[in-house]
User: What shape does this take?
Amino acid sequence: MKRKVARKKRPAGAKPAKPARAKPVRKRAPPSVRPRASHTIRPERDFVDGLMAASAEALGVTIEPGWRKGVKFNLRLVLDHAARVEAFCLADDAEPAPVFHA
Amino acid sequence: MWSTAADIAAAVTSGSVSATRVIEAALLRIRENAPLLNSFTAITEERALAAAQEIDLAVTAGKPRGPLAGVPFAVKNLFDIKDVPTLAGSKINREAPPAARDAALIERLEAAGAILVGALNMGEYAYDFTGENVHDGAAHNPHDVERMTGGSSSGSAAAVAGGDVPLSLGSDTNGSIRVPSSLCGLFGLKPTYGRLSRARSFPFVASLDHVGPFARSTRDLALAYDAMQGRDPDDPACADRASEPALALLERGTDGLRIAVAGGYFRCRSAEPLAAIDCIAAALGVNRDIEIPEAERARSAAFIITASEGASLHLDRLRARAKDFDPAVRDRLIAGAMLPASLVVKAQKFRRWYRDAFLKLFDEVDAILAPATPCTAPLIGQDTFMFDEVELPVRANLGLYTQPISFIGLPVVAVPVPLEPLPIGVQIIAAPWREDVALRVAHALEAKGIVAAPRPAL
Assistant: This one.
């Protein structure tokens, strides 16, 4: 059995303790080295099953029982790739490149 | 049909051989190879013989015939051929009416004197790296007919590597020219995105679709490439850019070019790609590695955009006729339709970031060498392969070295290193619009005998 660790409660209205030293002002890092996104895609089992069912209904696509394994494999695969891209932080003014001119 | 396109054109132009004789020989070879290679899905015999007769009449009359006079060529069956349904490797498109007009690139090659002899097998709707097709059967690798050609331009590679024709056209969204070039031991050119017109070809992923030639020599690639360049308002992505002929620049060699080997993500431990890269780097005296930033993430972003745009293109067909798809393609497309839009937009934003980061490398180098495929040709039907001691699915991973490059539309020449028992390709990557640089490097390697399209024992 896991032990529960009791958290020390702060009295109501009390201010949070100040940090010992003020944090230095940080220069904004370029997008490539900014911190990773705090949340990313988690293609876990139930998540993928639920997404598959809801998307198929919303899109009007029928998935026959014999296709489920293949669709699920591919959905997990593409979500894994999406997670890798989603974890990359871009600036708010980053422009997409849907019509690309090299 | 082992002569190069350049030699055929020279012989036809000089009158030492007739175009009709060349085409008859090609048609005979195509029929002989058909049971072995399964590379063609349509043969345009009547049209080809009529075109050959016209060329012969022009030769007799002393009229101009063009730099590809009498050269037989064939096209992946996603290019429109007048009076032929454009299959795009599918069952569904067999019901489409015959095309009303030829694809832009067919028109341009024919204007240069080349002669179309047919349409070529391909992976369904170009969503394929293997060359397998449940409707038409797999195309077979001429170097070992038990093995894959690679895809999706499977027939385009098999027909040239097997000696049916000296020249073919394919498309490349994520590697569909470079992967089959590598597995079949050919030269393939994926030009800069927007360089060659895609007009009247069946699309796959508008953001990433390219078209280009396969050949057994660099000179033939350049001949075809020069004949096909130029603006085309019928393709919205075709650049408003004048032709920049490359053929005349081939002999300039590599003097003055700064060349590096792609490191990091591209530096695998698998024997064949490593041997191929090392062989080429040594021949060119290249001793510098360069890191391509975020290449693995770029591949993932290409994967996402492909899945989503491909699914969007086919969604109506998936609703109405899912059972008529190749099951492997159907499952991938349905999965792609389920990808949340915000993730696709992120991939497109990342694409611009990656492009800016990658282009900075060309301040330091003119060309980058990278493997074309992670392995030589797998067996037809093989599901997985070993890569850096990890077992990976074949279908999804044959393009792991090509996807991060086409993702931002850079020009690449795939060159064949004739390893035994099977060849493998190397990508020569250049800056946007510098196909001439990649072709010069390829030509220099060919002149040194380091790269060559091996003749199979068919």
The radius of gyration of chain A is 22 Å. The helical segments of chain A are 45-59, 68-86.
